[in-house]
Amino acid sequence: MSAIIIGIAGGSGSGKTTLAKHLKDHFGGEVTVIGHDSYYKRQEGKTYEERALQNYDHPSAFETDLLIRHLEELKEGRSVQCPVYSYVDHNRTDETVEIASTKVLIVEGFLILHEPRLREMFDIKIFVETDADERILRRALRDVEERGRTLRSVVTQYLTTVKPMHEQYVEPSRKYADIIVLEGGHNLVALEMIMQRIQNHIDKE
After folding, report:
1. 132-148 core/surface letters (b: 16 or more CB in 10 A; e: else)
2. What confidence score (pLDDT) does residue 205 get?
């Protein structure tokens, strides 16, 4: 049976990762989660300071062609070597992680519904919608506590790239979603509906 591919999009800090984690925790080995962030392009020849100033919220920051090839391989039942990205260093590392094909593939990322070729691959397209104030607060806490950023750098990045790119690319992609999930993984009604759809696919085998 061919894998079902689910795309989970939404703004930075909206709760995409939380939703994907709930699904992974529930279905275990039946589900593989792939983050679009893993496919950030390698920043060759740039200093840390130069890398820190790049626009990581524009579609051109990603090697989306590689992600598409990997999804094609996984859908055919073959394993892939997924890149590993370091948020601390603002760069892709030399490491890769082997990802095996499973019955359910979840792709999570804020720009994945913007890219037509990715959209066409998704059997279910989900957009997680959360209040903008809550999203920036979540992002600030995450980036300071987990990624070694200063609060000033988080605010600067939000105002210069995150917010304008969200308005230009992320928010307009909402119209392509099959399901709009308010408040991400905390929306238990939506979570139950998505789980049932996944379970139906698994049970078909």
Report:
1. eeebbebbbebbeeeee
2. 61
Domain with 112, as residue range(s), is 4-198
For the record, the structure tokens of 123 come out as 């059997």
Sign of the torsion angle spanned by Cα atoms 191, 76, 62, 94: positive
Query: What is the rounded CA–CA span in Å between residue 40 and residue 62?
Result: 4
**What is the per-residue pLDDT for 75?**
93
The number of domains in the chain is 1
φ, ψ dihedrals at 187, nearest 5°: -90, 90
CATH code of the domain covering residue 116:
3.40.50.300
- Asked whether the beta carbons of 43 and 54 are under 8 A apart, the reply is yes
- Split at pLDDT 50, 70, 90, the class of 192 is very high
* Angle between the N-to-C axes of helices 188-203 and 16-27, in degrees from 0 to 180, rounded to the nearest 10: 40
pLDDT for 120 equals: 96
